[in-house]
Amino acid sequence: MTKNELFDRIVAILHDSFEIEPSRITPEARLYDDLDIDSIDAVDLIVQLKPLLGRNLQPDAFKAVRTVQDIVDVLYGLIREKAA
């Protein structure tokens, strides 16, 4: 899965689950400041991202995540790690 495909999936999840307008969801968008994703929402988001990997996601992997692009980068790294 490419980074663009991951971004598109994340946009769909944020729109469907949190009713965020897709036009607000950019790679640079900050989850808390720009998209109003709080810590409880972040846990819900991690649960919904699990099917992209087919395994449990460790919350520690998301400690440094601040933007939508950070989510893409972490997921992309985990997918590549699984494939290796």
From TrEMBL:
UniProt xrefs under InterPro entries: ACP (IPR003231), ACP-like_sf (IPR036736), PP-bd_ACP (IPR009081)
Pathway note: Lipid metabolism; fatty acid biosynthesis
Q: Where in the cell is it found?
A: Cytoplasm
- What residue stretches are annotated with the Carrier domain? 4-79
Pfam families assigned to the protein according to its UniProt record, in alphabetical order: PP-binding
Key word Lipid biosynthesis present in the record?
yes
Arranged from A to Z, the UniProt key words for this protein are:
Cytoplasm, Fatty acid biosynthesis, Fatty acid metabolism, Lipid biosynthesis, Lipid metabolism, Phosphopantetheine, Phosphoprotein
TM spans (from-to): none
O-(pantetheine 4'-phosphoryl)serine PTM positions: S39
Its PTM note reads: 4'-phosphopantetheine is transferred from CoA to a specific serine of apo-ACP by AcpS. This modification is essential for activity because fatty acids are bound in thioester linkage to the sulfhydryl of the prosthetic group.
Under the heading SUPFAM superfamilies, the entry gives: ACP-like
Write down the HAMAP family for this protein, in alphabetical order. Acyl_carrier (MF_01217)
> What is this protein for, i.e. what is its function?
Carrier of the growing fatty acid chain in fatty acid biosynthesis.
Q: Tell me the protein family, please.
A: Belongs to the acyl carrier protein (ACP) family.
Recorded protein name is: Acyl carrier protein
According to its UniProt entry, this protein's organism is Pseudoxanthomonas putridarboris
Gene of this entry: acpP
